[in-house]
Every structure is written in C-alpha cells, then in structure tokens.
Amino acid sequence: MRVEIEPASESRDERPREGLNAATARAWALAGVPSERVERVLDQALPVMGGMASQNVLNLADAAMVGRLGTAAVAAVGLGSTMNFQCQAALQGVASGVQAMAARRMGEGRYPEVARPLNAALILVVLMGVPLAILAYAYADALVPLYTSDAQVIASAVPYLRARVLAVPAVGMNFAFRGFWNAIQQPQVYMNTLIVMHTVNFTLSLILTFFGVPQLGIPPLGALGAGLGTSFSIWVGTAMYVYQGIKRATGLGFLQTRPTLGDLKILATQALPTSVTNLLYASGMMALYSIVGRIGTTEVAAVNVLINLMLFLVLPCMGMGLAAGALSGRALGRGDVEDAKQWPWDVAKITAILMSFVGISLALIPRVVLGAFLTDPHAVEIAVTPLRLTGLTVCGDAVSLTMQNALLGVGDAKRVALVSIVSQWAIFLPSAYVAVTFFNQNLTCVWTLYVAYRCVQGVVYANIWKRGEWTKILLA
C-alpha cells in the first residue's frame, strides 16, 4: 500500500511556492503575515475550514427542510440536534488527542507509529459510543420533555433524536479520522469525504422527509426522515474514511500496529478534558434552549436557527485553529519552539480577515438569510438583531477559536477545559437565566450575553498561548 506524506524537512524557510500574486502577497505582508506562511496555512487549513463549515450543513439542511413543516418542527429539530450533540460530545475529545499525538510523531519522523493513536481512538469510540447510542435511543421519550412542554415539539423531537443517535458511534470514528488527516497534512481527504456525505444527506433526507418511498411502503416521514437521512450519510462517511485509511496510511501503522497501554493512557488523558468540555458545552446549549423556552416556542425556533448559523461561522474558525495546532505540533516535534509559537498568531490574523467578509454580509442581509429557515415572520424579526450581532463579532470569535483549537492541537486540553467550563457555566448561563427569569428580557438580551462571554474566552485563550506553558507538554 502506498503512503502519502509530506517531506520530513519542514523548516521555517519554506520551499518556494507559486500561488499568491505580488499584490496579494503585499496585502498579507501589511497584515503582518509573510506570504509563504499564508500559502502554507491555506494549503493546510482551507480543506479543514470548508470541512468544519460543512459539518453544520447537516443540521442546516435538516432545519431548512423541516422549516417547511412549521415552527414547532424547527424547534423539534433544534432540540433533537442539540441533544444528539450531547451524546457525540463525549467522543469529540479523541480528535484533538489523535491530532496532538500523530502530529508530534510526524514531526519527529516516527512514521510507522503515526497512526497508532488513531487505532487506539477507534477502539475507545466503539466501547463508549455504542452504549451511549443505546441509552439515548431507549430514553429519548423521557429526555425530550425535560426541555420543553410543547406537545407538538415533543412529538417530532423524540423520533428525530432516535434517528440521529443511530450514528453516534460513526460520528466518534469520524472525529478520530479528522484529527489524523489534519495531523498528517492530508485534510483534503476529510473535505472530499464530507462532500459525498452532504450529497447523500441532502438527497436521502429530502426524499424521506417529503416524498417517502411508496414502492417500499414508506410514507413521507417529516422530521424523522431528515434524521434518518443524516445518520445514514454519517455512516457512509465512516466507510469512506476506513477505505482511505487502508489506501493511504497502512505504512503509517493504520490497522497494522496494535495500540499500547501507553497510547491508550496518553489518548485518554488528552481526550478526557476535551470530551468533558464538549459534553458540558452541549449541556449548556440545552440549558440555553430551556432558558429561551421560558420566553416562548417561537423564540426556541429562532434560537435553533441562530445557533446553527453561528456554528456555520465558527466551525471554519475551529478548522483554522486545528490547522494551527497541527502546524505547531509538527514544529514542536522538530524542536522548533519559536515557529510553533508563531503559527496560531499568523493563522488568527488570516482567519479574522477572511471571516470578516462573511460576517459583514450576514449583518447586512439578516432577513434574507433567516427567511431560508423560518417561515414565521415574527420568528424572523426577533432573530434579526441577534444575527447581526453574530456577524459583527465573528472576527473576535475567529481569534478565540483559533487559539482554543491551537491549544488543543498541542495537547493543552486541561486549561482549555477550565476556561470553557467556567465562562459558560459560571458566567453566561447564570446571567442569561437571571435576565429572563427575573427581568423578563428577550432573545436579543440573551444572545448579547452569549456573544460577550465568547469574547471574554478569546482574550483568556490568547493570554494562555502567549505564556507558552504548552511547550512543556510531553506526548511520548
């Protein structure tokens, strides 16, 4: 089997590249980023950036389709998607763990051992993901009413959630593969797989939601159909990742080297803080739904669309951060600490500039964007100002998420976990609860608090990176 890897020599003086013209190079130089580093970042990050954005296309596609079925259906898909995210969150930490370990080994030139963390992650995901999926499926009808009392929402959310949790183990495996492809600088594999997944998801979900398959006795399934289409597409992606791993990475140890207890221990140490963080973040999103639900069902539908649109913006920023973490991790593996320190600052500048164009567009035409997902004019109107806030602050989110994911990429998961948990659960959620419960504030107030807490996070993450304590983390 062939192995496709980058050359082992990766000094700060990159080999000459063709791509940026003179004017573009000068523009980036004015922003303080040398053109050769811009090209390096874009080569590594653009596929990841597009892939991260396209992850949320699964939820956006469901929301857009189900939006034709009414406000209650949109609220149901929002609740179901977020509860499904709670199940997945416990498995997401494997991605940063795999990336940190594999990138370091690539930088050190230990090629036959690069995929061993991936092998370990796949074992952990199956052991954790299958029981999680079974429990969530069995207790869906008891869990959904904890967050809403609307009978119409419950009736659609329960089957939708059950359909989505069928793919929980596959999601965990896909996260592990994502970390691996990023680490070995083959993010195009990730991107190409997601394109196929989204094509399958859109086609199958559309058919099952609105038309059914009369030849097989399957009627139109509404929200359930959207969930089934999404889950099937995720399993398609897993099959493609396994095939690509066999094709491209057997020489790096994929399915060839047995993980050691040391590998499992290091991976668990790296993955646990991130998994706990993601689980609590997802639980915090469910708490946000519950808080907004005190205002009304229309507001729940609106906040579902806002969250998905916000994720559509921030997931590319996360992708850029993961790319920064991979570049820094490989630099650490080479022993070039100064290069490792500089990458996230360069990536943050690039990300902020690129995302500012998208953010400004959202701020200028919020009603057009919201109208694609909400048919209720009142729901659109109450979401306009929050969406404008999201668009105008996306640059700050870009810097925050770049630093956060760069820290994860070099193995500093514990400090990231502490900042994320404290800022969400000790600052944002109590503030939002008090604002709605005691001061009768609306969705705009809640969303303003949400934006503010994320900005505070960014300042803290940047300070942690600047201090440089992450350079002392060992990933043997």
Automatic annotation (TrEMBL):
> Hydrolase: is it a keyword of this entry?
no
Segments passing through the bilayer: 120-140, 160-177, 189-211, 223-243, 264-289, 301-327, 347-365, 416-439
What Gene Ontology molecular-function terms does this entry list? antiporter activity; xenobiotic transmembrane transporter activity
Q: Which GO terms describe its biological process?
A: monoatomic ion transport
Q: Name one GO cellular component term.
A: plasma membrane
PANTHER family, from UniProt? FMN_FAD EXPORTER YEEO-RELATED, MULTIDRUG RESISTANCE PROTEIN NORM-RELATED
- The name this protein goes by in its record: Protein DETOXIFICATION
Organism in which the protein naturally occurs: Ostreococcus tauri
The organism's taxonomy opens as: Eukaryota, Viridiplantae, Chlorophyta, Mamiellophyceae, Mamiellales
